[in-house]
Amino acid sequence: MVDKFVAFIPVRGGSKSIPLKNIKKIAGKPLVYWTIDAAVNCPQISKVYVSTDSQEIKQAIEHYDKDDNGKLIVISRSKETATDTASTESAMLEFANNYNFENIVLIQATSPLLESKDLTDAINEYDKYDSMLSVVEQKRFYWDFNSDGSVRPLNYDFNRRPRRQEFKGNLVENGAFYISHKKDLLQTKCRLSGKIGCYIMSEKTYYEIDEPDDWLIIESILNNRNDNF
């Protein structure tokens, strides 16, 4: 039987900004555990594949003990798809060429604010689209440079500055997850294609862990969330 939805979480051992950040503890558990939690608790996802080039990360994931349904599988990631310059798509394509499934849910371990409800609700809307991505709504005024060094607004008229409650704002990728059909991924070699839909997450999920300052912000949010459980 072919799995309709599988989660794919690529994790590298070679992070330079925060060494081995994917298994560094944040708010009490390894970073990657947060997204694993979200994936294994999503009822539509039948398998959760964590792809890594690191033996240390593999061993850490094998100690994950909340997989009651046996969804979690750790697989090897080739050195070619785990370099500093390799794209996430290269790891996705490597996976797609070796495993049987209908749809892939790419989940990024650097987005630990992701919850299973986000994945469940997005998958429930997915049949309307060819691919989906997670976003946040931001009511910010964007500017860019002109060729002469002056600046211009991109998304509003400064002569008619809207009030916040009247401003529609913009959708911004938060990098938490992407959903696509396997056949489209193999054909386009891109995580997004065709008619693209979005799932709007809370604005606090805008944060991804790329730098040490991000770590402090997200850990504070996670600790507050844990306190409210």
Textual characterization of the structure:
This protein has 229 residues and is of the alpha/beta class. It has one domain: Spore Coat Polysaccharide Biosynthesis Protein SpsA, Chain A (Alpha-Beta Complex). It has six helices and eleven strands. The chain has helices spanning 31-40, 55-62, 88-96, 116-125, 182-188, 212-227, and strands at 3-11, 25-26, 29-30, 47-52, 72-76, 101-107, 131-138, 143-145, 151-153, 170-181, 196-201. The strands form three sheets. The chain has a seven-stranded mixed beta sheet with strand order 5-4-1-6-10-7-11, sandwiched between helices. A two-stranded antiparallel sheet has the order 2-3. The longest helix is centred in the last third of the chain and has 16 residues, at 212-227. It is globular.
Briefly summarize what is shown.
By secondary structure, the protein is an alpha/beta fold.
The total count of strands amounts to 11
- Please work out how many helical segments DSSP would assign: 6
Fraction of residues in helix: 25-40%
The ordered H/E elements are: EEEHEHEHEHEEEEHEH
Order of strands across the widest beta sheet? 5-4-1-6-10-7-11
Helix/strand layout:
Blueprint: E1 3-11, E2 25-26, E3 29-30, H1 31-40, E4 47-52, H2 55-62, E5 72-76, H3 88-96, E6 101-107, H4 116-125, E7 131-138, E8 143-145, E9 151-153, E10 170-181, H5 182-188, E11 196-201, H6 212-227
Parallel strand pairs: 1-4, 1-6, 4-5, 7-11
Antiparallel strand pairs: 2-3, 6-10, 7-10, 8-9
Helix pairs in contact: 1-4
